[in-house]
Structures are given as structure tokens and as C-alpha cells.
Amino acid sequence: MAYTQPDLPYPENALEPHISAKTIGFHYGKHHATYIKKYNDMVAGTPHDDQSIEDVMQAAANDPEKTGLFNNGAQAWNHSFYWNSLTPNGGGLPSGQIAEKIDADFGSYDAFKNELANAAATQFGSGWAWLVLDNGKLKVVKTPNAQTPLTDGKHPILTIDVWEHAYYLDYQNRRPDYIAAVIGELINWDFASQNFLNAQV
Ligand code: MN
After folding, report:
1. Burial (CB count within 10 angstroms: exposed 0-12, middle 13-18, buried 19+), residue 73
2. How far, rounded to the nearest angstrom, does the alpha carbon of residue 5 sit from its chain's CA centroid?
3. Cα(98) to centroid(ligand 1), Å
């Protein structure tokens, strides 16, 4: 079925000064919208038309003849997840069960933060850094290009887009500064916490 681009959960300028309205305007309005259009064009009139985007991603993930379908579908899904991983006045410390689990699995919030920042900074070229729940344990992973832990048996909890289009207008080559701003000021811990609780059941 056609995948509809979800509304941006905040105005385009709501993440300023950390991410500009210009960046969000291109990123949501052009990049994400184009992945979705291409995905919808590819599934239209095929058996995938009856499937959810998640099921199409699973089916296409290991099919070398469906690389284009996977890439556009995964980028459609990953970006929808990314918009919700951010929020104005976010960042700071998590609380509740996810905070306890971060302490248990990483040792401390600071250890988690450093591991996430390092993964995001060292993803070579385009890709994503993620907090995931994998076999009952919170882990940080990075994925290249459109790859997503969703088709790797892991539960995504939050993500940071580290494609250059996510930060270049605002930070140019200073990817670590973008990462520090996202982690420190924008992470949506309510969304992450909800994903964590949902992954338990
Ligand atoms: Mn992107």
C-alpha cells in the first residue's frame, strides 16, 4: 500500500538553533519526500502493494534484485523514525526504566552517550547511528546508507541520521558538533522510552 509521509512532529524551525529550518525544509520536504515517492512508485501495481512498508523491507532486505526497493523503503521508514527521535527542548538525561537499563547495559549514561557519539562520528560516509534493543540488551549500532536494524532482528529505540544532508548546511564538515547537539539538546527520550517499553512485549 502507498506509504504516506507522516507529518513532521514539530514546525520546521522548532529545532533551531541546533538544526535550521532550512535543513529540515530540504531534509523532510525534499530528501524524505523523494524516498517515499520512489518507494510508492516501485510498489504500485506489484504484489508488495498489499504489504506494510515493514513487511516490504523485510522481503527486500535479502533480495539482491530488490536493492532499489529496499533502499527507498528503508530510507522512508528510517526518516520517519528519525523525526520522532528528535524534539525541541529534548536531550538531557533519560528517566524511568530506560534510564535504569542504560545504566545496566552501558555502565552509565555518560558511557552510553560516548558510545553513541562515537558510532555516529565514525560511520564512514552516509548512514545512521542507533540505540537498539537486541536480545534483551540495549546496544549502540551504526548502519551504512539505508541499512536499518529493523530488518536485522533488532528493535530500534532511537536514531541519528549522519548523512551529510542532515547537517551540512548547518555544520559543514563538523559532524561531531551536530552529533553533540542532537544528543545533548534534541533526543526525544519520551519516544525512545515508548519504543523500549513496546519492545519488551
Ligand atoms: Mn536523511
Report:
1. buried
2. 15
3. 26
Determine the distance separating the centroid of ligand 1 and the alpha carbon of 114, expressed in angstroms: 22
Ligand 1 centroid distance, CA of 71 (Å) = 12
CA of 44 to the centre of ligand 1 (A): 24
pLDDT in 10s for each residue of the chain, 201 residues: 789 999 999 999 999 999 999 999 999 999 999 999 999 999 999 999 999 999 999 999 999 999 999 999 999 999 999 999 999 999 999 999 999 999 999 999 999 999 999 999 999 999 999 999 999 999 999 999 999 999 999 999 999 999 999 999 999 999 999 999 999 999 999 999 999 999 986
Q: How far is ligand 1, taken at its centre, from the CA of residue 107, in Å? A: 30
CA 196 – ligand 1 centroid, Å = 23
CATH at 187? 3.55.40.20
Residue 104, domain extent: 96-199
CATH number of the domain encompassing residue 59: 1.10.287.990
Tell me the backbone φ, ψ of residue 19, rounded to 5 degrees: -135, 125
Give me the residues paired with residue 127 across strands: 144
Q: Are residues 61 and 130 in the same domain?
A: no
Indicate whether 128 and 69 sit together in one domain: no
Task: State the amino acid at position 46 in one-letter form.
Answer: T
**Interatomic CA distance for residues 182 and 184, integer angstroms:** 6
- 149 Cα: distance to centroid of ligand 1 (angstroms): 16
Q: Is position 180 within any domain? A: yes
Domains identified in the chain, total number: 2
